[in-house]
Amino acid sequence: RATRLTMDRQGIRQLAAEKLKLPTSPYRFAGNLAELEAGAKAVGFPCFVKPTMSSSGHGQSTVKNKNGLAKAWRLGIEAGRGKTGKVIVEGKINFDYEITLLTVRHAAGISFCAPVGHIQIDGDYRESWQPQPMSKIALKKAQTIAKKIVSELCGKKGRGIFGCELFVKGNDVYFSEISPRPHDTGMVTMVSQTMSEMELHVRAILGLPIPEIPCRPGASVAILAEGDMKNPTYEGVENALKQPGTWVRIFGKPEVIKHRRMAVVLAIANTVAEARKKAKFAASKIKVAEG
Predict the structure, then answer these.
(1) Fewer CB near the terminus (10 Å): N or C of the chain?
(2) What is the pTM (predicted TM-score) of this model?
(3) What InterPro entries does the record tag this protein with (predicted)?
(4) Can 290 be counted among the known catalytic residues?
(5) pLDDT digit string (tens) for 90-120?
């Protein structure tokens, strides 16, 4: 149930906003261009048009005015992960920052990792860091939202880690999306936490103890490749690793088709700002090229 709902933007948004009464951006669903035009008018411009079944930004558009709706409709219908015949149109929230709150449901209850701040471009993760500074009020609200939706998705027996994506504006927090697995923005936990998000997921599923989850300042930057490559190779890795406290994780994907995330650079430092600077510098040294 959790897997099905979290891949279905209509199902998860109705669960969050209509059943659980969680704060979200304004939204409408559309099954044709006329419905999309009416929905966009209701939520206002600029707005975001997304397939109801998709991930990693596939089929997503930012629409500034009504002239862009026809193109957004075609992209949303044609480029989604699944063919539902529907899109969601969302109004814009002028948030201060967005976070992923990694939330672990395990035998002893629910635990939270420190909030992960991140940057997404066209719905695709590019950079993340941990911990993201938040007010105590905003953090409490974020944890309350994540606990409510994770508990609903898990029922009595569900176990594992969830990536709960949230928008934060001052002390206000809005639910965006949730993934029933380790999250791409959470790759930073491979260096920022003593237990990575992957280890936490396995521990929860196997019923192993999950004590406190300590965190130190860390950052990640995605390595992207553009074009078509049948034998991608990685140049500059040795230069990226010259800085102390940096790592490179290559995903081992056998080919590149148009646009693909191929690796991630990780870094730790005394502060989040320093870790982000190190990760971005190291990432700038790496190039994916045809072998």
Answers:
(1) C
(2) 0.93
(3) ATP-grasp, ATP-grasp_carboxylate-amine, ATP_grasp_subdomain_1, PurT_C, Rudment_hybrid_motif
(4) no
(5) 999 999 999 999 999 999 999 999 999 999 9
For residue 198, give the amino acid letter. M
Annotation says 165 is catalytic: yes
What mean pLDDT comes out for the span 261-273?
Answer: 98
Active-site residue 55, yes or no?
yes
Of 111, 249, 261, 274, which is the active-site residue? 261
Average pLDDT over residues 188-215: 97
- Phi and psi for 52 in degrees, rounded to 5? -75, -15
What architecture does CATH give domain 26-91?
2-Layer Sandwich (3.30)
Is residue 184 flagged as an active site residue? yes
pLDDT at 155: 92
Residues in CB range of 210: below 8 A, 6 or more apart: 104, 106, 108, 111, 195, 200, 203, 204
Asked if the model's pLDDT at residue 178 lies above 90, the reply is: yes
As its CATH architecture, domain 218-290 has 2-Layer Sandwich (3.30)
